[in-house]
Design brief:
single chain, 145 residues, mainly beta, Beta-clip-like, 4-stranded mixed sheet, 9% helix, binds S-adenosylmethionine, binds zinc ion, Post-SET_dom, chromatin regulator, nucleus, Set1-like
């Protein structure tokens, strides 16, 4: 993975509401952006998820880093919170440890063209309560979870 500052912007997406777009070509293995947010425990995440649902926040900005830790980008996040899921994505999310602290980095697994939407596979666990996937990929699995 190579770290360099890629120019990005959020804009309306064909997949869902807002998405994140590359303002310049991004090479394979480049780190696109870190997924920043507040690190919270599972119990807090469960509680917040209910509050967010009740308050009508239709999108989830919770990203699991391990069994008991979640990054919540709902109120304290960066542009990475706008990245939509795709079943055939151009990026991957990777958990790395820096100075004992786990971080989420999004890096390109395919060349990303200027103007292209940046996506990764959310890899949500299978659940009964299905979220339809609107990624539009030929290989779309139909659901996020
Ligand atoms: C981290 S947000 C992504 C940004 C979101 N589009 C927005 O405008 O805030 C995650 C939410 O976006 C929606 N989403 C992302 N990818 C999707 C997809 N492929 N199909 C349907 N909804 C998607 C879901 O509501 C999900 O909970
Ligand atoms: Zn899909």
């Amino acid at each position: 993975m190579r770290s360099r500052k890629n120019r990005l912007r959020f804009a309306r997406s064909k997949i869902h509401d807002w998405g994140l777009f590359a303002l310049e070509p991004i090479a394979v293995d480049d780190i696109v952006i870190e997924y920043i947010g507040e690190q919270i425990r599972q119990k807090v995440a469960d509680h917040r998820e209910k509050i967010y649902e009740k308050s009508g926040i239709g999108s989830s900005y919770l990203f699991r880093i391990d069994d008991d830790n979640i990054i919540d980008a709902t109120k304290a996040g960066n542009l990475a919170r706008f990245i939509n899921h795709c079943c055939d994505p151009n990026c991957n999310a990777k958990i790395i440890t820096v100075d004992g602290q786990k971080k989420i980095v999004i890096y390109a697994n395919k060349p990303v063209a200027e103007g292209e939407e940046v996506t990764y596979d959310y890899k949500f666990p299978i659940e009964e309560d299905k979220i339809p996937c609107l990624c539009g990929a030929t290989a779309c699995r139909g659901f996020l979870n």
